[in-house]
Amino acid sequence: MGSFYDFLEKREGRWGIALRQGVYDKDRIDPVAPDAVLHLDAGRLRTFPAGYRHLAYLQTRIGYEVKMDMPQSEGKEIEELYRRGAAWLRGEESGPPR
How much is the pTM? Predict the structure, then answer.
């Protein structure tokens, strides 16, 4: 489960999303087959941020590099996102944070 924190801008007379930042609250893995048994490395699973732990686990298993500092429902990353968003709304930043 998650949400998005969107930065909207008006460009050439039209409003649009200039940046969409995902905020990760909680994830899980649900087997499609009712008789499926999942075998996950619990130690490795715990190395990933709680908000996107299972997604990161699976992505790294297929070779993706996962960012370990994505915003979650609480913590310094979401506080920084909110701070930057407020500064941008006040006109203190020239564009949405990247």
Answer: 0.76
